[in-house]
Amino acid sequence: MRKFPENFLWGGAVAANQCEGAYKEDGKGLSVQDVLPGGLRGERTKQPTEDNLKLEGIDFYHRYQEDIRLFAEMGFKVFRTSIAWSRIFPKGDEDMPNEMGLKYYDDLFDECLKYGIEPLVTISHYETPLWLAEKYDGWRSRKLIGFFERYVRTIFTRYGNKVKYWLTFNEINSLLHAPFMSGGIMTPADQLTEQDLYQAVHHELVASALAVKIGHELMPDAKIGCMILGITVYPLTPDPEDMIAVMEKDRETMLFADIHARGRYPKYLLNYFEEHGIQIQMEPEDHEILKHTVDFISFSYYSSICETVHKELGTSTGGNLSRGFKNPYLKASDWGWQIDPRGLRYTLNKLYDRYQLPLFIVENGLGAADELVTLESGEKTVLDDYRIQYLREHLIQLREAIHDGVEVMGYTSWGCIDLVSASTAEMKKRYGYIYVDRNDDGTGTLERYRKKSFWWYKEVIESNGACL
């Protein structure tokens, strides 16, 4: 019988900007998320506006004790969240941190540890301080490496005895697809050249490696990983040209993992730079900094796409920032993301074969328009069998990958409690095991209700996956 490791880290994941709310309380500065009321595909505003659901989120900032108690009831071993950079350094370039922000995360992590839940902390999750975007054009400026280093040293020193697991940048490869949300780059995307984007990428990669270096010095027992947006790509046809197209599409993702895991720029990327006239400005110390490689690789996985040179044969589709072509063998979610559990097994094997480093699935889940119902007993819940089916099928394929020999540290399903969508900034796209009474128009009580999937996931954790 296939089994999960005894020490497998079961849990869930959120991001500060999608759940905390309290966007200007206790000294917090503005982040890029506070001026994105429409999410990734919306227009940014000059100031926060009332239609931005992220300003209140699900009020996790004030309700985290209740929510962590619910996570503990499910049996979480780990909880992935992020630190809002602008709670610690409101503008991002100050000399001294904001003590009220530091205390909030002290209390949050203490609450997790009270229940035996290990925090898994993302240092930067799509929430660059807005001031750094406006003054420096975000990660296009090398100055952000220094500001990030100050931030990293501050939180590692403060929380090093509470947090064992860290991620540097969330979905770091997303900078190529969403330069403002991912990298705080104010210059309009259609005005950015590849030179601009890859220079910003270089700055983030150096900052990420620098965080690994500092973390290993200050917290020798900690594990520090990178986090990539997992895009599984298949050829649409057996034409060998389609396989080459897949290889090139893959490299847009794999270059980030290659550099984090191997500590140097791969030859195929250097060739690409030469062929496209891209000249990355590097400081002499950058090569040595990049050699500080990660302890593990984490990634998000929701769907897969196809690639082809025969564009006339394909139908466009996408999911989680990726664009490609529909796979005729797969169904899709309510939001058009193709559902591919076996693709998770394939992805795990591909990454492990390539790097031989432990892997961690830190995002996976089904966004759906849930309906809150009242049972005869009077209990309010969501009968989300569709979510249970999605998660079960993916976890079975995860178990198969472990049987294949892949070393997987854990699994944190995305949006373990309903939160505001990053891509669309709406509440109706729900992922959680816990329903939050909040609507797209901002109404709702914010009360929490256990969905059917809550009890299912509790059993999964209690049995260490044996019930699957």
UniProtKB/TrEMBL annotation:
NCBIfam families for the chain: PRK09593.1 (NF007158), PRK09852.1 (NF007356)
Enzyme class: hydrolase
Segments passing through the bilayer: none
UniProt keyword terms in alphabetical order: Glycosidase, Hydrolase
Gene3D superfamilies for this protein: Glycosidases
Assigned protein family: Belongs to the glycosyl hydrolase 1 family.
Organism: Lacrimispora xylanolytica
Domain of life: Bacteria
Database matches in InterPro entries: GH (IPR017853), GH_1_N_CS (IPR033132), Glyco_hydro_1 (IPR001360), Glyco_hydro_1_AS (IPR018120)
Listed PROSITE patterns: GLYCOSYL_HYDROL_F1_1, GLYCOSYL_HYDROL_F1_2
Name of the protein this chain belongs to: 6-phospho-beta-glucosidase
N-terminal signal peptide: none
GO molecular function: 6-phospho-beta-glucosidase activity
